[in-house]
TrEMBL record, chains A, B:
UniProt-recorded name of the protein: Aminotransferase
Gene Ontology MF annotations: pyridoxal phosphate binding; transaminase activity
Family annotation (InterPro entries): Aminotransferase_I/II_large (IPR004839), NHTrfase_class1_PyrdxlP-BS (IPR004838), PyrdxlP-dep_Trfase (IPR015424), PyrdxlP-dep_Trfase_major (IPR015421), PyrdxlP-dep_Trfase_small (IPR015422)
Domain of life assignment: Bacteria
SUPFAM superfamilies: PLP-dependent transferases (SSF53383)
Keywords: Aminotransferase, Transferase
Annotated Gene3D superfamilies: Aspartate Aminotransferase, domain 1, Type I PLP-dependent aspartate aminotransferase-like (Major domain)
The species this protein was found in: Sporolactobacillus shoreae
Domain (Aminotransferase class I/classII large): residue spans on this chain: 41-385
Key word Transferase present: yes
Annotated family: Belongs to the class-I pyridoxal-phosphate-dependent aminotransferase family.
Cofactors required: pyridoxal 5'-phosphate
């Protein structure tokens, strides 16, 4: 019988996809270089040459069976060891292979983590603005996702609202720092306060509360920004990482779950992830991609262009009267629209071939997201369009 | 809250894994070349050189963004087109891009297909001996997997038992031909009979019944064997393919769902697959692997060694008194054990460093599986061990 739940999901076409389809059509008319497409979080800098070299070396090995052969369901042992060693070295936590599970990007990591630590009837909390795909990940476990309204002052955490929403049903909290869509990194103070609160609640309710840290932008942090490693502050932390942004390979779908070794069920959660994969027929990421990222786990692409772009746009937009919290990382910024209805605002922006994303679907109406992972010269050419757009509101 | 359902699954360690762990330990003692490991379905022949060449060409392109960038959730359009064209050319069905969904191997394909066409309370039927991982794929949709007892005469279909088991609750039937673990291909007569039966039942019950055809071994068919393309015989057929065996890259987790264009909901099922992926955070297989297999969709590794090995083993084992239906493809064979309890038999085989898999977990007690995807010279060296084993039963 056709599964109606999935059939229904088809009706809800995402705003971002609609915008990017519009951008593609417009590009056919006026050339893609003249469409200022700030809609897509697709990294604009190339993968590091060393990644390419490693990939070629692996592909051309004498013993292809060892490269293209089955991976164990938790990931290739040597890969998990290298990632654990890299995390241990960088962040000082006692990670070992047994704390690492290889996944299909951060998406796969979060979906696995949620299935491991929540069951039907549980609640999961996250903070607006938030990545809307958390909804299907949470819903499919039978749990319910609750959204804390945004702290629009600084896009840290609205603790008053969070504490009010919290109950004994909450088994997991999802944070995303540096954040998509705001570009803001949670400060040490924010993370400490969150960790202390969760510890208190664990004692009060007598059960574990897992902190799922979604951090594909961990390596894109700007100068002098306080952006600490979340798991360093909380024992029951599950880090969900993707190499998509740090290595500029979002299409290769590679990441991991790393459970804080101090977490009581750390090794159990990792082993459960392997069982969770069985039900979805996913098993594990491709062997050659696992082997390749393990060799460059400590490297990144040249990510400096994102800070350059941010500085140009932040200066220009705030100069034009936009209200915007300065990003601490990622390749996103999150200004307030110049009218209350951000959808209408972004529609108007299309007049000037500016593709901006209204933040309604991120749970933060009135704002818009800009993904400035585009060439700097294009950012500069787009400034005139922003000036015209702002002039419309004078 | 820790999800007990996954925790419990951990207790059920697979026999195959235990055997392969034993084989690894024994290999440390006496050298791997002296362990006759027939337990694992890991292809023994190298990937075709042209696959490696394509992979290197992709990895070293000037425009890495186009290779490593996001894939649409249904798969890269050009890849889906090439696969559709290849299937159309080879099997004469009117496949187009819209009938193809790229997956993480056949496992991902089957799990997606089942989620698309069954819901909680439905029944799914398959035929013993069968691949035990069908259980988690089916269970996670809320449906129930029913197993038709084997036709041990020829390992075709036990139609008498199948027809008796059938009811209006059955929404999908899974076939696997050429078959793991028997090595047998369903004949045209078998598939025709199955298709006619399902068509009758569709009319009788007034609803669609989907035939999920799991065919990772489609390209490994021996000389003069009648092994037709399943979807050519039935309109509501969903083909689940993997390149693992044909191209010798099981670790790269790449395959597809192809829905028969004659299926009423063909395009809908494919679009639903994209939504199903959202819930599990999987999205799509890696871009570079998709792009690479699309270039070699019509090629295979040199698979001739499997038939060579089969002929040597079939001659020797039947000569020793084993009862065995001659395989028509794959790299498996499925003899009857020399005592009633195949687990005891396989345990005895370990005395001679023969690693054989008892077929109890495939739903066919009393038989054992041999995966002869090992070098021919090793097959030959193993014959003396089989002779000693058989002598124990004289």
């Amino acid at each position: 019988m056709i599964a109606e739940e999935y059939k229904k999901m088809l009706g809800e076409k995402s705003v971002i996809r609609q915008l990017s389809e519009y951008a593609a059509e417009r590009a056919e008319e006026i050339g893609y270089e003249n469409v200022f497409d700030y809609s897509l979080g697709n990294p604009s800098v190339p993968v590091p040459q060393v990644f390419t070299d490693v990939l070629v070396e692996l592909a051309t090995r004498d013993d292809p069976g060892s490269v293209h052969g089955y991976s164990p369901s938790l990931g290739i042992a040597s890969v998990r060891e290298k990632i654990a060693a890299s995390l241990k070295e960088r962040f000082g936590l006692d990670y070992e292979k047994e704390h690492i599970f290889m996944t299909s990007g951060a998406a796969g990591a979060i979906a696995h983590a949620l299935r491991a630590v929540t069951v039907s009837g549980d609640e999961v909390i996250t903070f607006a603005p938030y990545f809307p795909e958390y909804n299907p990940y949470v819903n499919k476990t039978g749990a319910v996702l609750k959204i804390v309204p945004p702290d629009t002052e600084g896009f840290q955490i609205n603790f008053a609202a969070f504490e009010k929403m919290f109950s004994s049903k909450v088994m997991a909290v999802i944070v995303n720092t540096p954040n998509n869509p705001t570009g803001i990194a949670y400060s040490s103070a924010t993370i400490k306060k969150l960790a202390r609160f969760l510890e208190e609640k664990e004692r009060e309710y007598g059960h574990d509360i897992h902190l799922i840290s979604d951090e594909p932008y961990r390596e894109i942090v700007f100068e002098n920004v306080d952006a600490p490693y979340v798991a360093g502050y909380y024992h029951n932390a599950i880090t969900c990482y993707s190499f998509s942004k740090s290595l500029s390979l979002p299409g290769e779908r590679i990441g991991y779950v790393a459970v804080n070794p101090a977490c009581r069920d750390a090794k159990l959660i990792i082993e459960m992830c392997g069982q969770i994969s069985r039900g979805i027929g996913h098993n594990c990421p491709p062997s050659i991609i696992q082997l390749a990222v393990a060799e460059v786990a400590d490297l990144t692409a040249d990510l400096s262009v994102y800070e350059t772009n941010m500085n140009i746009l932040y200066r220009e937009l705030t100069g034009l009267g936009f209200s915007c919290v300065k990003p601490g990382g990622t390749f996103y910024m999150f200004p307030k629209a110049l009218e209350e209805d951000a959808v209408a605002f972004c529609k108007r922006a299309l007049k000037y071939d500016l593709i901006l994303v209204p933040a309604d679907s991120f749970g933060c109406p009135g704002y818009f997201r800009m993904a400035y992972c585009i060439p700097t010269e294009k950012v500069e050419r787009s400034l005139a369009a922003f000036r015209k757009l702002a002039a419309d509101y004078k």
